[in-house]
Amino acid sequence: MRSHPVDRPADLDVVRESYDRVADNYAHMVATTGMGDIRRHPWLMASMDVFADSVRGLGPVLDVGCGPGTVTAYLAERGLDVSGVDLSPRMIENARRLHPECRFSVASATELDLAEASLGGILGWWSLFNLPRDILPQVLALFARALKPGGHFITGTHVGDEDRVRTEAYGGVPVRWTTHKWRPEQFATLIEQAGLLPLAELRLPPNEFSGPTVVIHAKRPEAPDS
How many CB atoms lie under 10 A from the CB of residue 72? Predict the structure, then answer.
């Protein structure tokens, strides 16, 4: 039994099935349109480069909600010891096919068994917005405990005041999930309440693929000198 269990979202199975349905289309759109490919988005790539430099030498890095593995592979190219997990088995199949040099496994953010202070870095890169509002703080606290003192966390999410129920996505594929949007200051407060120190925030305007978004980079505070 995990020492810090996280509540299971009521819609977890429905969300998993939805992402399985869109996985092939999503991987194709990343390759053909640049959606989700940080190499084609300078501000996002710069944010990830700062994260990569910050965690170098601190230990393993975990990409939670890695999708088809695009960001996982980018960080591996930067020389990091990184692996990816995703709720969707079909997303993981695509990740392994596209990036056979990387390590991937199937797991929900709410089902991870992470040892205390075991990771140098964690990503929640546009992968936490499906978590219900009462469960996201639990997951963030899990991440904070799993980071080594001085370890780093980076996340990106959708900005707004409302929840949006999606019924189709990525080429009109039928889905059923809720996008929980946050104001940047609310999201930063949740991260801080989990025990992490926000270091930087990048707000981005809407583009052809998304409404406004925010990236937040935070760290677990260093252990006090004994």
Answer: 27
Tokens 């709410």 found at? 110
Structure tokens at 172: 């009109």
Q: Are 55 and 121 in contact (CB under 8 A)?
A: yes
Pair type for strands 147-158 and 163-169: unpaired
C-alpha span between 160 and 181 (Å, rounded)? 5
On whether the pTM is more than 0.90, the answer is yes
Nearest-CA neighbor of 128 among 64, 191, 84?
64
- Can you list the residues of the chain whose pLDDT is less than 70? 1-4, 225-226
Residue 226, pLDDT score: 39
Pick left, alpha or beta for residue 59 (phi over 0 → left; psi -120 to 50 → alpha; otherwise beta).
left
At residue 172, the 3 state secondary structure works out as coil
